[in-house]
Amino acid sequence: MRLVLASNNAGKLAELQQLFAPLGVELVRQSELGVGEAEEPFRTFVENALAKARHAAAATGLPAIADDAGLCVNAFGGLPGVDTAYYATQFGYPKGDANNVRALLEQMATVDDRRAALVSTLVALRSADDPEPLIAVGRAPGEITREPVGDNGFGFDPVMFLPSLGKTFAQLPPDVKNSHSHRGQAARAMLALMRANWL
Questions:
Q1: Residue 68 a catalytic site member
Q2: What is the secondary structure of the chain as a DSSP string?
Q3: Pairing status of strand 2-5 against strand 26-29
Q4: Cα Rg for the chain, rounded, in angstroms?
Q5: Contact between 170 and 153 (Cβ < 8 Å)
Q6: CATH number for the domain including 156?
Q7: pLDDT, averaged in runs of 10, over the chain (199 residues)
């Protein structure tokens, strides 16, 4: 099965390709099919993921899958949430992973409650008009470190510490990260939904 991935994020594509390989699902980035980014005007992960999946399916005629993910920090009432990708821009930095980490550590410099969770919501559609989207959510709770640790991964991986493993996501090899990450959890749930409903 060929699915268009409603994202141009190379990190997401690599992670999801590895996770979906057992089903024989081939993921193709929307940019490879000439599809631009969708609008993401909503305040919840599920609404934005659904908008992205519908956009990609409508533009390509293929089944589509979209991921909307972000960091939810307890001390900030769950923010940055859906604004995670643009977090740094709120503080005058250019958009990008390194600047997001820098801005987060600056904003949390005097915060003692370091609890946070990385959340991933996957939505899959058979077509743009599919009335029954498959929805899977993964949540990886942890704590924000006071400085980046580790060289693997992307996004907030260097500052997301997992007490159960005693390491940040950026310190984990990809297979271990995928078995614990928000996106790994969501992908495994989505695979089960696809097996039950589509295959």
A1: yes
A2: -EEEES---HHHHHHHHHHHGGGTPEEEEGGGGT--PPP---SSHHHHHHHHHHHHHHHHSS-EEEEEEEEEEGGGTT-BGGGGGGGGGGGTPPSSHHHHHHHHHHHTTT----EEEEEEEEEEESSTT-SS-EEEEEEEEEEE-SS---SSSSTTGGGEEETTTTEEGGGS-HHHHHHHSHHHHHHHHHHHHHHHHT-
A3: parallel
A4: 17
A5: yes
A6: 3.90.950.10
A7: 87 82 87 92 96 97 95 97 95 96 97 98 97 98 98 94 97 92 93 92
- Enclosing domain of residue 130: 2-197
**Confidence (pLDDT) at 164:** 94
Supply 150's token pair. Answer: 């580790």
Number of residues in the chain: 199
The pLDDT of residue 11:
76
The helix-helix angle for 10-20 and 182-197 (nearest 10°) equals 50
The active-site residue, picked from 67, 68, 113, 175, is: 68
The pLDDT, as a whole number, for residue 178 is 87
Question: Number of folded domains in the chain?
Answer: 1
